[in-house]
Amino acid sequence: MKDSDPDKHKWFSDHISPDLTALHRIKETIYSGRSKFQSVDIINTAGFGVCLVLDGKIQSSEADEFIYHEALVQPAMLTHPQPERVFIAGGGEGATLREVLAHKTVKKAVMVDIDEEVVNLCRRFLPAWHRNAFDDPRAEIHFADARKYLEQSSDRFDVIIIDLVDPLEQGPARLLYTREFYEIVKQKLGRTGIMSVQAEPAEWKNSDNFTAIASTLKKVFRIARPYRVHVPAFLGLWGFVTASQSLDPTKVAPEEVDARISSRVSKRLKSYDGLTHQGMFTIPKHIRQQLAANKRIITDKEPISAY
Amino acid sequence: MKDSDPDKHKWFSDHISPDLTALHRIKETIYSGRSKFQSVDIINTAGFGVCLVLDGKIQSSEADEFIYHEALVQPAMLTHPQPERVFIAGGGEGATLREVLAHKTVKKAVMVDIDEEVVNLCRRFLPAWHRNAFDDPRAEIHFADARKYLEQSSDRFDVIIIDLVDPLEQGPARLLYTREFYEIVKQKLGRTGIMSVQAEPAEWKNSDNFTAIASTLKKVFRIARPYRVHVPAFLGLWGFVTASQSLDPTKVAPEEVDARISSRVSKRLKSYDGLTHQGMFTIPKHIRQQLAANKRIITDKEPISAY
Amino acid sequence: MKDSDPDKHKWFSDHISPDLTALHRIKETIYSGRSKFQSVDIINTAGFGVCLVLDGKIQSSEADEFIYHEALVQPAMLTHPQPERVFIAGGGEGATLREVLAHKTVKKAVMVDIDEEVVNLCRRFLPAWHRNAFDDPRAEIHFADARKYLEQSSDRFDVIIIDLVDPLEQGPARLLYTREFYEIVKQKLGRTGIMSVQAEPAEWKNSDNFTAIASTLKKVFRIARPYRVHVPAFLGLWGFVTASQSLDPTKVAPEEVDARISSRVSKRLKSYDGLTHQGMFTIPKHIRQQLAANKRIITDKEPISAY
Amino acid sequence: MKDSDPDKHKWFSDHISPDLTALHRIKETIYSGRSKFQSVDIINTAGFGVCLVLDGKIQSSEADEFIYHEALVQPAMLTHPQPERVFIAGGGEGATLREVLAHKTVKKAVMVDIDEEVVNLCRRFLPAWHRNAFDDPRAEIHFADARKYLEQSSDRFDVIIIDLVDPLEQGPARLLYTREFYEIVKQKLGRTGIMSVQAEPAEWKNSDNFTAIASTLKKVFRIARPYRVHVPAFLGLWGFVTASQSLDPTKVAPEEVDARISSRVSKRLKSYDGLTHQGMFTIPKHIRQQLAANKRIITDKEPISAY
């Protein structure tokens, strides 16, 4: 069989909204099945290379996962003066863990993902994501509900990274986007820790979940800072929020970000540096107004949901 | 991993014309690659079960291949009084061979397909098609260009079945739909043999290739009889033509068809019987007029091509 | 503005089943709106010319409405020895009326369609369908529910043609596919009349409604005869059934059909003649078996529904 | 006819690349035709409201045209100390003109668009875009090739805004993205003027045209500043570049931007202000590297082209 596949007949349909569908050309379906919690596809798309797809949603792509994972992890890690103990909720691909372990200061990284099958598939099929981070002696992997785990644990953490699937109505992550969960996180961080969370699409006409997460975190923490990066495979801008009782990434100057990267990070970052840091937290007027306008507090009783 | 796959995100696009595309939901991609001659996909669709797809075109589906293969093989076989030696051009799935070998009269069936890789994939992945016909001692399989093979062979055949892929511009079957090829076939059949050929879509607004093949065969043979069956996975009516110097399927009465099936066929036919036979050769007026109007003779110099 | 439109960016999606969608290229949207009963689109497709679309389903196309309308009307009309009084339930485009009025024997044709807006749109935009049949002095048009109209009428009819939209769950035609409705029809036909009905897709893997309508009519009438034609714009075979206490189209020989067309029909038929008649009623074995197997009687309490 | 249209059957396909297609649901096709230069569609989409589509590409949408047009016009206008004479190349919708005329300093705005039919359609169907800007006494509209017009004109301008369709291979704008054209622009601006240009997609994996335009402008002008904003209807980040012999928008502080808006702009800006200004010019590391790496100079002989 020849190497190239000129076939243009298989497509992955990403239903962005009832009114908008994107069709990604599939070069190869590497894996397709269902875990105990969700449907799982690993497909090689013509546009973005290999993609992990859970419940029909692209989680990350070979082409641009670095943009997403550096954005999720680095602002919180570099805002903290000395992150030693890190907790990751979710993070199945292992790339969040990879970004955390690139920090020389880290002594222990606890990752809790509910879906062991997905993590095993990622270990097998996505080596470019995890780069063997799972085998780092500082890494500790548990398969459990991250909220329950955190609630029952007596550990404290310097940084908590929340890297979960969308809050689908029947999905496993719905109650990990609520005020109640963030209260638990706050308790584990104490006065000196910082969290960051992937916070759904953050675009004009599609920012309700992003602004509600930011609003909820502002209620729970003294400081909450929304930010955004563009992830091509998601066909748009993705939101994140850091939250802390004391730490504020917007107070760290670009030069200081660059200096901390130099001294603390053991690998080359491809997207994140001082200027990138400054740009992500600089939000245009029409989105700032949406952030100011959305007062919603997400609770266990009234959780958000993604399309 | 659970059994069922509720995922609705992978689609196979069948480009029927520049103005019409069908999207078939994919449950599973069983195989995807390229042989020396064509792209090959074996996909499990939600609508038609497992399908063999060559160069982006569905060749046959688990759900309805019996309609296609019985229609291709049985009229010629049952019109012949005593088919002992049968030649198959193409027929990669092995289902044409299966239909031929169901005839107790058959002593030898020679199948010549250009694409060994496709035949091997069919043997492996499509057992419901071939039902081990490849292992029948009466079967003889060659991997070669069927036209060249036939030209160089000194054998004579009672029945020749032509079961080729569409005449794509760059495809391997283009020169097996021409007057020159049919002249070779005629010579191998002699006065008493009969051929049948899959002859492309046979619908109002999409019958040019069907009527041209019928017209060409009428030029080469004394008797040429176009017929049609509905194959759901092809989303329409498919054309066939029998041709012979002496044998005419429309002269075989339904009761005689049923009697010959009884005495000569060793398995149950699911679609074909006397009435089915009568129906397939009864073509409605508007298509009869198209058959009468198309005088085109397909030649090596001016071959037809499929979209 | 130039004449030709090379644009390939607008598509009509015909959701044939949850697992199969067809995309027809739109050249022009002629009309788009909602009547009191259904959504209405009149679009010019690249593949089939102008199409009437109700509730997202193609009702008929410029390219092949003649196949559908001749098949719906002519078998019943020509089986009847002297059709003078004809009733049409539905038939908004006016093409069913056109086929009825082509019969010189007809003295009165009563058409009852529920949707006046649709009929007016068809009069305006689909002149090639109705050919001014609405203005024929023998035609009488009422806007009402055809079942209620027939129930309250004291008229008797020689032929009743039922040309309704699909039985959609919320659609206006649901209770016009039931035993109770057919009993009313039988009463209006008496011993000597005949009805015909469009009876949904009639394909292998998609024949449940067709076979249930046939089964129900067999229960109500002494004679019920299912038949099928291929309508390209519907991407498949369409079913019909005639029913009568005394008249049987399969007993009319092809030559007799041709003779009756000659003496009774005042226009050229493009698809229907004696041979076409014979072909449509000749159903292949696998569909005959489905017809025999489906014993369902459709009732007002348990109506059928279309996807 | 009812107001709402629940129909989900008409789609606009935006072919973003050979490997990615977006389907936008169409609520209504307002206009569809061809001008002398390009195909023209005005469609009401469910996701982004009314959209102007030229040669199959969305030019701007009701939902977010303000993001695009403020970004195209305001940085150059507000970086200039006193813009009185402004030239617009293209700008058919009239929204670019609207943004220019919102500046109290402007005495004359010359807009040159090649396509009179498109401009007339926009005047008629897109009042929310132009807001009668065409009727402002300071506006002067010409229908001509903007390059030829500028070449033959002896006028000088303070600001030149280049708002053209994509450089399609057969399209009208191909030679308005070249070094030769930018040399003409430079001459008309003199030492103290500034230009801005819409510069195609500006995303990781899709930035070749953006970085080539920036590279070409850097060659022609002393100062060239690329920037980006997110336009949801384009499903991504859109690039722009300002260029000048003396003026540098990145040297204008956010507070100064806000002050200039206050004193010089007669309407409320929805997206643009000091912080938005700072954010747009702050480009992340991976895109900065692509800008640095692309040394291509676009010329009349070797123009760029869009998919």
Count of alpha/pi helices of chain A? 10
Indicate the mean pLDDT of chain A.
Answer: 94
Number of strands of chain A: 12
Name the biggest interface: A-D, 44 and 44 residues
Strand order of the largest sheet of chain A: 8-7-6-9-10-12-11
Kindly list the characteristics that best describe this protein.
31% helix, Spermidine Synthase, Chain: A, domain 2, five-stranded antiparallel β-sheet, 307 residues, homotetramer, Rossmann fold, alpha/beta, seven-stranded mixed β-sheet
What this model shows, in words?
The first copy, chain A, is an alpha/beta fold and 307 residues long. Chain A has two domains: 11-61, Spermidine synthase, tetramerisation domain (Spermidine Synthase, Chain: A, domain 2, Roll); 65-293, Vaccinia Virus protein VP39 (Rossmann fold), CATH 3.40.50. Chain A has ten helices and twelve strands. In chain A, the strands form two sheets. A seven-stranded mixed beta sheet of chain A has the order 8-7-6-9-10-12-11, sandwiched between helices. Chain A has a five-stranded antiparallel beta sheet with strand order 1-2-3-4-5. In chain A, strand 9 (159-163), helix 6 and strand 10 form a beta-alpha-beta unit. Chain A starts with 9 loop residues before the first strand and ends in a 14-residue tail after the last helix. The model of chain A is unreliable at 1-6 (pLDDT under 50). Chains in contact: A-B, A-D, B-C, C-D. The A-D interface holds A 8, 17-25, 45-48, 63-64, 66-67, 203-206, 229-230, 232, 235-237, 269-273, 275-276, 278-280, 282-286, 288 and D 8, 17-25, 45-48, 63-64, 66-67, 203-206, 229-230, 232, 235-237, 269-273, 275-276, 278-280, 282-286, 288. Strand 1 of chain C pairs antiparallel with strand 1 of chain D.
